[in-house]
Amino acid sequence: MRIADRIEDLGTETAFAVAQAAADWSARGHEVYPFHLGDIDLPTAPHIIEAMNAAIADGKTGYCPGPGIPQLREALAAEIGGQRGMSLSADEIVVTTGGKPVITKFLQTVMNPGEGVLYPNPGFPIYESQIEYLGGTPLPYRYVPTPQGFAIDLDHLRSLITPQTTALIYNDLQNPISAESTQAEREAIAQIAQEHDLWVLSDEAYFDMRYSGSSHSIAALPGMRERTVILYTFSKKYAMTGSRLGCAVAPPQVAQIIATLNTNDESCTTHFVQWAGIAALTGTQEPVRAMLEDFRQRRDAVCALVNDTPGMSVAVPESTFYVFPDVTEAVRRVGAADVGDFAQQALHATGVSFCTREHFGSRQPGEDRDYIRLAYSGIALPRVEEGLGRLRDWVSSAG
Ligand SMILES: Cc1ncc(COP(=O)(O)O)c(C=O)c1O
């Protein structure tokens, strides 16, 4: 039987292949330290689970409105608007099954086949997958290393824009590199979007995952709200990755289209999960604080051990739960053919499993450093220390 041609353009999250390799290694009786997936090893808070169970018991198990239940849309407008200094109304909120569908639905709404979309590389792989799948032209923009982490190469980004460019995907608090824009960089992106009349998808999946300071949304800058769709998710902040709950914040006309796409695709987001979302937003935020404190300790341990490993270095990021160390010299030191070989050797020699830069898009011309991504959201502090201690000892003993 024939498969549709467009499937050839569908990408995936190749991190899942790393997870498979780690699972295979573990099944063969080896210890594995999982730093590959951005999942969370902490449970959803009890009051959220209780609200979900109560909603089931109360019969909230049928269909509900495609844009989301009004009570959740109100709560999201208050929460998201309050944190970003924007006054949002419920008709700008469309509830979705996690944050990821917002990427597809944004592109379906604003991008015609053949039109160009700017997106970060290294970046979340689903951007490129969906741009290509929907027939757009992928325009990956790059980052440059700085002593504080990474900055967007604005000249490079500008050089990619053509009259056919229709949208820009912006992931401040970035997966995989943990980059965070300065206010000047955020304003420069906003200016570019306005100059070239671009739609902006502001992926704010990690907006609340930070250890100091405060996050800012590009949507709150003058002239941006009417051209920006925010991706919001409960996955990370409330440790609800499997519940699949998020939303798009969009100008009302776009919000209506995304709601219609919901009706076509899922009918609605799971009814009782939406009630759990209300409990998450309006209940105690203590579990969020406790999780961030736990993650802060993991981050400190990861960065200290990485910087104590010969040939590896990283700046300490203030947000997300990823670090993206430069491992160029370590790759050379252990005699690996390339960074992919380094990852495989590391798994077999130490049990430490991680993604490499290559899992987040093809290398850009002129990129000659090797990077890996360590996600510390799924591994408790003592195991972080044990695993990365082994990695350090393995690299140290080579060369
Ligand atoms: C940058 C980024 N955007 C969006 C998502 C999607 O999150 P969700 O689980 O809510 O679909 C992720 C998940 O890892 C992410 O890293």
Give the rounded overall mean pLDDT: 96
What's the number of domains? 2
Which regions are unreliable across 5 or more consecutive residues at pLDDT < 50?
Answer: none
- Specify the CATH architecture of the largest domain: 3-Layer(aba) Sandwich
Helix content: 40-55%
Reported by name, the CATH topology of the largest domain is Aspartate Aminotransferase, domain 2
Q: What is the number of E strands? A: 14
Determine the structural class based on helices, strands and strand pairing. Answer: alpha/beta
The share of residues in extended strands comes to 5-15%
Ligands, deduplicated:
pyridoxal-5'-phosphate
Annotated CATH homologous superfamily of the largest domain: Type I PLP-dependent aspartate aminotransferase-like (Major domain)
Number of distinct helices? 13
Q: How are strands sequenced across the largest beta sheet?
A: 2-10-9-8-7-3-4
- Assign an overall shape: globular
Rg result: 21 Å
Oligomer type = single chain
CATH class of the largest domain: Alpha Beta
The rounded distance between the terminal residues' Cα atoms is 53 Å
The succession of helices and strands, N to C, reads HEHHEHEHEEEHEHEEEHHHEHHEEEH
